[in-house]
Structures are given as C-alpha cells and as structure tokens.
Amino acid sequence: MRRGPAPPVDTVASRPLAIISGGGSGIGLAAALRLGRAGCRVALLSRDAHKLAQAQHAMAAEGIEVVVQALDVRDRATCADVVSNLCAEHGAPLWLVTSAGIVEPGFFLEQDPALAAAQMDTNFHGTLNLVHAGVPPMVAAGRGHVVMVASSAGLFGVAGYSGYCASKFAVRGFAEVLRIELARTGVSVTVAVPPDTDTPQLAYESRLRPAAIAPFAGAGTPLSPDRVAAHMIRTAERGGFLSAPTADLAAIARLQGLAGGVLARVQMRLLRRPAKR
C-alpha cells in the first residue's frame, strides 16, 4: 500500500541545543554561527552584555534561534543554575563549547602573581565549572559533544605566558581525562589548540606582549575565528579528540600524542573491566 506524505516536523521544537561560553565574539561566536546555521538552537554565554546583544542581533538576522545569558564562568553556582534552566526549557545540550578565556602576557619574575591566578580562574576553572554543569544531562541523554578551546600554548611553553600556558595545559589535561572517563557514555570530548586567531583577545594581547618574545609569539598570520571553529566542530563530529587547525600544530600534536594515546587506550581498557569485589 502506498503511504501518504510524512506529517510535517516541528523543526523549531526538534532543534538541538548548543551552549557556548565566550560566545559574544571570536571563536565562540564563530562556533555559534556555524552550529546555528546547522540547525541548532544556540545559547550564548558571556560576561559582556554589550557583545552578547550584538551577537544576538547578528544571529537573529540570519534566522538563527538564539538565547543569551550574561554569565561569569568563574561562578560555579551560577553556571549550574544557568545550565539547569536551559536544559529544563530546551532539553539536554547536544553541544557544549567552552570558549571563554583571557590572556595577560608578561615575564614570570616581572608579573603580579594575581594575573596568573586570574587566567587560571577564567580559563581552567571557568571551563571546569561549565563542563561540570553541562555534562551530566548530556550523559543522561546518551549523546553530545564537549568542545574545550585551549590553545597552541597548551601544547608547549611560551616565554612571557607562564600563567596562560599553565591554564591552557590544564584545560588540555582535563579534556584528556574526561575523554577517557566518558568513552562509553555517548558523549565525545574534543580540545582545540589553535594558534594566534584574529579575535579581540589577540588585539589586547598584542599590545602587552613582551618585545623580546614577539618574533616567536607573533610569528605567522593569525587564523580567522571561522577557520578555527570549522575545524574544531568538524573534528568533534568525526569523534576526534584534538583539533589542531594547521599542519605544523597537527605534527607537534601527533608527536606529543603518541605516548598519551597509548596510555589513554590502556586506561580505557582498564575501565571496561568489571570491578573486583
């Protein structure tokens, strides 16, 4: 018997949720635009209400369904409340992208230690807070992609960036562990390690970068935020762990990842074994 046409689908109600911190500009906004164009309902989080309003206007003009929320990711309790409210209204997120970050260049012996602490609070603890809030509903749903934005400075040390490197190394290490622990849940974990990217953060950083390190730290043409976002989303969709959007970074990551990959696979096998009683 020939069937009639399928009933119309409520595309708005079926749109998956993408939660993105640091979504007011840069890589976060580029990721939001890509996921929104792909059919996601986007929740943008940022401390900067003005940037959020601008981003919301630009995305709405493209027909992207977007909600915005001013949020300081350093505040763990507020992160939990915001994510809980979003999940209650829109369901568990399919995407959780942690892009909020700051940078304060300066040589270790010359810099106020409070600046290193501030970078760790935003870059690592802010990532931890949002992931801690967002991953449980994703695990309960049995699917999703967690994408953490680290940096090429999370692959190797860069003089004049001790606090920033420490925070981004921490993000990468956290992602490596989470990938192992979530391997059987249906939730994938990807960490992006982009080089200099043409963002407001880079413009700020460039003014403060120590002159002695500028020939190294400022070498090369910055990537566009869209190129970085496209690569990390594509990597996540393919189930990849590390998003290195240039050939040089990919080679460095492969060399570093050989030993780490072996150790990760050993641990995954151990976690699959039944617990001894």
Which characteristics define this entry?
277 residues; alpha/beta; seven-stranded parallel sheet; 9 helices; 51% helix; globular
Account of the protein in words:
- With 277 residues, this protein is α/β, with parallel strands linked by helices.
- Helix content is 51%, strand content 13%.
- It is built from nine helices and seven strands.
- It has a seven-stranded parallel sheet with strand order 3-2-1-4-5-6-7, with helices on both faces.
- Strand 5, helix 5 and strand 6 form a beta-alpha-beta unit.
- Helix 1 crosses helix 8, helix 3 packs parallel to helix 4 and helix 5 packs across helix 9.
- The N terminus is likely disordered.
Radius of gyration: 19 Å
Series of H and E elements:
EHEHEHEHEHEHHHEH
Quote the distance from N terminus to C terminus: 57 Å
Shape: globular
- Give the amount of beta strand, in percent: 5-15%
Q: What oligomeric arrangement do these chains adopt?
A: single chain
Q: Helical percent range?
A: 40-55%
Widest sheet, order of strands: 3-2-1-4-5-6-7
Number of helices: 9
- Mean pLDDT, all residues: 89
Strand pairing plus helix content: what structural class?
alpha/beta
Number of strands: 7
* Biggest pleated sheet: 7 strands, parallel
Sequence stretches where pLDDT stays below 50 over 5 or more residues: 1-12
Write the layout of secondary structure elements.
Layout lengths: L16 E5 L4 H12 L3 E6 L2 H13 L4 E5 L5 H15 L2 E6 L14 H29 L2 E6 L12 H20 L5 E6 L7 H9 L5 H4 L7 H13 L4 E2 L3 H26 L5
Parallel strand pairs: 1-2, 1-4, 2-3, 4-5, 5-6, 6-7
Helix pairs in contact: 1-8, 3-4, 4-5, 5-9
